[in-house]
Amino acid sequence: MVYTPKTKRTYCQKCKIHKPHKVTQYRKGKDSLTAQGKRRYDAKQRGFGGQTKPIFRKKAKTTKKITLKLECSKCKTRRCTPIKRCKTFILGKKEKTSGPLF
């Protein structure tokens, strides 16, 4: 499990100084229907003949690389930075658990 704080003090390339950045997890946007690859695929699929391109089924990886989106608190400039692979990613502070009571 990877815990990441919601704010991180790091270098801003526009301000040229370390500033607090708001941290969020990067998410992929909705696929465009007008992208050239999608139009080509749809045209090839049209008509008789069944599935024309291979469907990937041999998935080997069990985790994904996490990408963080950092937004500067002063100038609002955004940039993405990748971190290592992990199964569980939690944004926010780790809650303190009480140990054994004596």
What does this structure look like?
It contains 1 helix and 6 strands. The longest helix has 10 residues, at 36-45. It has 102 residues and is mainly beta. The two termini are 29 Å apart. Strand 4 (64-72) and strand 5 (78-86) form a beta hairpin.
How are the SSEs ordered, and which strands pair?
Blueprint: E1 2-4, E2 7-12, E3 17-25, H1 36-45, E4 64-72, E5 78-86, E6 89-91
Parallel strand pairs: 1-6
Antiparallel strand pairs: 2-3, 3-4, 4-5
How would you sum up this structure in a few lines?
It is built from 1 helix and 6 strands, in the order E-E-E-H-E-E-E.
Quick one: biggest sheet?
4 strands, antiparallel
Helix content: under 10%
Structural class: mainly beta
- End-to-end distance: 29 Å
Q: Shape, please?
A: flat
Beta fraction: 35-45%
Mean pLDDT: 92
Strand arrangement, largest sheet? 2-3-4-5
Total of helices: 1
N-to-C SSE string, H for helix and E for strand: EEEHEEE
Number of strands: 6
Low-confidence stretches: none
